Amino acid sequence: MDEWRWMDAGALGAGIGAGEIDPVDLFETFRAAIEAHEHASRIYARTTFERGRAEAEAAALRAKRGARRSALDGVPVSWKDLFDTAGVATEAGSKLLEGRVPEHDAEVLRNATAAGLVCLGKTHMSELAFSGLGLNPMTATPPCVNDEAAVPGGSSSGAAASVAFGLAAAAVGSDTGGSVRVPSAWNDLVGLKTTHGRVSNAGVVPLAERFDTVGPLCRSVGDCALMLAALEGGKAADLAGAEGLAGRRFAALRTIVMDDLRDGPAAAYAEALERLRAAGAEIVEIDAPEIEGPMGQAGILYTTEAWGIWGDVIAEKGDVMFAPIRKRFEAGQDVAGAAYVAAWRRLDAARRDWAARAAAFDAVLCPTVPSLPPDAARLMEDGPYYVTENLLALRNTRVGNLMGLPVVTLPTGAKSCGISLMGAALGEARLMRVAAAAETALAG
């Protein structure tokens, strides 16, 4: 049964449907693995085994009756600790919210439960989701699967670790500036950042509501499609007929995302492009000068909104926060309203220019993260290094958030190095079909 921990969520669901896997046995396999794992307390903020057992038992009864609710009915998953869970503390990785126990599940958790998914528990995260590194000395810093002394990426740090270490079949995270994709890339997973507004944020602790999105961290593109359907309460995109890459046109973005690229990610990205070309894809290098202004003003856009949401609480109790995170929030407190409005107007114009430029391509490519996972101890000891590494980790992923796009990050085959495919707003189904073909090419 231990092999179940490393299977795709979709394969586990298919096994349940075929009568080969009992949902209760599956739940108990993950439960036992969590209880025995040396890093479990650094990955899970709290478990929900009583709930999970009951959900697994109900899924087993449905399977016996031929009344399964979805392809993932009975599959155990983890949830980032900013999704409200009725009767269970939801603290978003911050002492500011210590003891916060919501009365209702977040809407996406309700949808997933209705689809039969089994809730294993809540995973650790960067404080209030405001860091791409996954370092959180206030609660816990999960390990990176490729280097346990390094950070795993954030802010969905425990979410990625739960899947990478075989402690969940899939995970649910959030992405405001890269928080699904950075930890997915650094832990060799597939991550889906959804279009803003597509998946409900009701019952999700906010960071910057005009950028906050919900998305899955998984072992495959197929799992991402199934998880997205569960989160939405809808039907999964059909990837069975996904064509190969012959005739596909990709744009390889050069603007900003290739600057200061570290050696490992640079080599992995170049090799990935060659594999895509060998599979028949046409790749055209492009510049997109329209993103330069918004990327330079991202601090205004993010920190102003984050301070608007959390400023009063931080002003009152900010001494319980990790100082670098508090400083990021405080950067937004003196931004003039006129500057914020002007930044959004420029961003809206840039989005129109980007959409016109990208329309000729099946996806726009870039390295997911320009750097490799940095050492956790050094981040704690070296303040300037923390700032530099955090900003670099989130730089490339931020393009997708600013332009309002769905994005899939795929493993390249090199440890902790991902490649991103950016699609058109609300074009998740098409993007995942293209990404599924790319996934096959990169695995070959």
UniProtKB/TrEMBL annotation:
Pfam families: Amidase
Domain Amidase, residue spans: 27-431
InterPro entries to which the protein is assigned, alphabetical: Amidase, Amidase_CS, Amidase_dom, AS_sf
Amino-acid biosynthesis in keyword set: no
UniProt superkingdom: Bacteria
GO function terms (MF aspect): transferase activity
Protein known as: Aspartyl-tRNA(Asn)/glutamyl-tRNA(Gln) amidotransferase subunit A
Top-level taxonomy: Bacteria, Pseudomonadati, Pseudomonadota, Alphaproteobacteria, Rhodobacterales
